[in-house]
Amino acid sequence: MSKNHSLVYVTYRDGSKASGKRVVLGFSGLTGGMTSPVYTNREGAALIEHDLIEHDSTGTATVYVDGSNKGTMRCPGKTLVVL
Fold it and tell me: Which residue, 51, 58, 72, 74, has fewest beta-carbon neighbours within 10 Å?
């Protein structure tokens, strides 16, 4: 099964990388749901995979970091979250 990839970078306001942060994408609509959690690496990056079939490749997802809503992003794609 083919996969889409979305990348979420998480940093602190001072520009330092936020490692070990739990990142989840939430999709709404009939095929909505939540991705499995992924933790940021020491570069502050979390690579999220989601099924093409279950999620529209041009859909909007809500980005959650450690359970807090941090806004939305277009998927597949990449975004920066500043804590």
Answer: 58
DSSP state at residue 40: -
CATH number, domain of 41, equals 2.60.40.10
Residues 53, 4: contact at Cβ < 8 Å? no
Write down the pLDDT at residue 2: 59
Asked if residue 44 lies in contact with residue 10, where contact means CB atoms within 8 angstroms, the answer is yes
Point out the residues of the chain with pLDDT beneath 70: 1-2, 31, 50-58
Residue 30, both tokens? 């009939």
Would you tell me how many other CB atoms lie within 10 Å of the CB of residue 77? 15
Using DSSP bridges, classify how beta strands 33-34 and 22-27 pair: parallel, antiparallel or unpaired: antiparallel
Q: Which helix (H) or strand (E) holds 36?
A: none
**Residues of the domain holding 65:** 3-82
